[in-house]
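Let's practice the habit of predicting before peeking. Look at the sequence and jot down your guess about where helices and strands might fall. Then scroll down.
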Amino acid sequence: MIINVPNAGSIGLNRDLSDHEMPLGAFTSAENIRFLDGYAGQFLGHGQVYEGATITPYHILPVFIDSNRYWIYASLNKISTVVLTGGVITHTDLTRSSGGDYSAQPNQWTSATLGGIPVLNPGNTTDVPQSWDLNISNKFVPLDAWPANTYCKAMRTYKQFLIALNITKPSGNFPFMVKWSNPAVPGALPTSWDETDPTNDAGEFDIAEGFDPIVDGLQLRDSFMIYKEQSVWRLDFTGGPFVFSNQKVLGVSGAMNRNCIVEIDGYHLVLTNNDIVVHDGVQGTSVLDKIMRRWLFQNIDIESFDKSFVFKNPFFNEVFICFAMVGSNVPNRAIVYNYVDKTTSLRVMPDIHCAAYGPINEGLNANWAQDPDPWFTDNTAWNSPDLVPSLSRVLMGSTNKIFLLDSSLSFDGVTPSAWMERRGLSFGKAENIKIVKGIRPRITGSQGTEVLVMVGSQNDPYEDPTYTTMTHVIGSTVRNDCLVSGRYISVKFENSNSFRWRLDSYDIEIDTVGEW
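Done guessing? Here is the structure:
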């Protein structure tokens, strides 16, 4: 009997349910495997760009200056920018001239861009929000018109307004306060934050319901969503004497940290304190429940949960939920959620502090010096563009490094370990012994490279399988013969020396024999 498993990546990874209770096409464990378009293949890698970083990036964002694509990156103490023009990479220190270094902490920076002008907020009670006039000869300066000795936990944009959240004034901290500026004219920053001046629209109010303080916020469609620790509120522009109205959207989920919210096709995806939630400003839905939710919160390091963050990888329709595994103090793993295919996967990350997507200079694509892949495993054509368009690339900040995601086949020059496993297959007959005589995987990749194909068995669905390992040579192997018997069958696919490979589907040839 031939059991066909089509579209091997259509369900993806599930770590929450029992192995033997899952659908046929689900994988019970996997690492560095991307489930995309119904297939399962090794993630593209990452490589260093911009010749490193002069400081360690803890926040990063793109800006345009005279058609040149700059990236601003902030460490805990300084701000810099980098650009590639005429084949020359230039890093420039933009740290404020007066006031000394900043005193940020990991995952405290937030940013906003209003009329093309970047505003960075250190998110503490020492440093006020900073802005830059896009003149490379100038430094960041305190935000114009911002009230003296006043600080905020997060700052974002909404329409022509800057929105400040969780405010500290000379009189104390107001963790439920939302404060907004006067609307800015195009190409300029707001001229007032004075809520007592009746001649402008600046204002503030408290979202006082509940015990949970405000964490962050982000625009969603025509509204601005305010995230507290355990609830979500919607801010809508009404004009008139009150300027904004607000109402509660969700009452059991907020945001875990700053930078834990991302917009996807008119929805927000949010990493909360106990789930990953998608909502449209009215109703929310868990995307990891009964898939990866319990696994995530059992494996995140409790001392470093506040360093978790999310970012969007739009070319592949993905959101990366980055977190520190138990024992790490820097995010080193990401659950990758494909919001079109509704699949999840797990990727090893290179100890990153931040990430953002945006346009890069074409010179960073297909750059010989930036390509770390060995000649015989490199799938890109000479002097050709990369697979991902330059307008939607992801840059990631690590210790004195800036990585470009999906830029190579290796992980910064190292062959990654990439594998996927399915345990507990009973094919609807748990009482029968199965004899597996062969497996026929459809695997594509670099011709002549090898993938390990393993078939194992278990008599108890909770025990570890005993595997028989075969070598599948891409382009020549059709069938992998074996002789494995047991009530529950396991299969595993793992890269051997292949840098890039993809499993489309597979068949298992089995004979069913005696029952219990």
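How did you do? The CA atoms of residues 75 and 393 lie 21 Å apart.
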